[in-house]
Structure formats: C-alpha cells, structure tokens
C-alpha cells in the first residue's frame, strides 16, 4: 500500500550558482558520505556532471522528504538520506541513523527515480508499506 508520493524539480543553474558562491560547503551539507565521494570525482572529471549529480541528489532528497510526510525535520536530514546506484545502475535510497530506524520501525520501503537535462533535475519517490 502506498504510504506517500513525492516529486521535486530543481534548476541546475541555481545549484551551479550556489557552488560558485559557497564552494563545496553546500554539497557537504546536502550529500552523505558515499555521495560526496562520487560528487567530488565527477566534479573533478567534468564539472557539469558533478553539478548535475548534486542537483539530482538534492531533488531526490526533497521528493523523499515529501513522500514520508516529514519535510526536512527530524529525523529527516540531508545527510541521513543518500541516493546510491545499485549494481544495475538503478537509483536506490540508503538511510542512516535515526532516519533509518524511524523508517524501519514504520515498515516502509522506497522507490526513487531521478533524471536531468541541461537546466533541470527532477526526482520522483514512492514510499510504500511492506506486506
């Protein structure tokens, strides 16, 4: 049964401008441990890929926070929610700490889809109850 649905669209130009103003501090605030490694690697290789990666993760976390009905308040934090790639390439949500415990206690599971184009990144999340 569906617990919640969330969607978000992000203007990649705004992310690029924020990075230009604040450097990687913004990325370090938003991205979890695995994500920050991928971001730094992509940013160093092709800057546009790094910026798009950050935008898709930002959008997915916003969509997830809407789907679980908490917004960005405890136990939902930017860094406690990571969007990682399965070996198949499919994006998946990995949770940490109090958010992971809260999510597990509620018996939930999440599905995420992300996409980006030159100027926009978007994400869609469906959270369902198990069983």
From TrEMBL:
Its EC number is 2.7.8.7. One of its GO terms (molecular function) is holo-[acyl-carrier-protein] synthase activity. GO terms for cellular component: cytoplasm. It holds the Pfam family ACPS. GO terms for biological process: fatty acid biosynthetic process. Its cofactor is Mg(2+). It is found in: Cytoplasm. It is an enzyme of class 2 (transferase). Mg(2+) binds at residues 8, 62. Keywords: Cytoplasm, Fatty acid biosynthesis, Fatty acid metabolism, Lipid biosynthesis, Lipid metabolism, Magnesium, Metal-binding, Transferase. NCBIfam families: acpS, pantethn_trn. Transfers the 4'-phosphopantetheine moiety from coenzyme A to a Ser of acyl-carrier-protein. This is Holo-[acyl-carrier-protein] synthase. It comes from Roseateles asaccharophilus. The lineage of its organism: Bacteria, Pseudomonadati, Pseudomonadota, Betaproteobacteria, Burkholderiales. The gene is acpS.
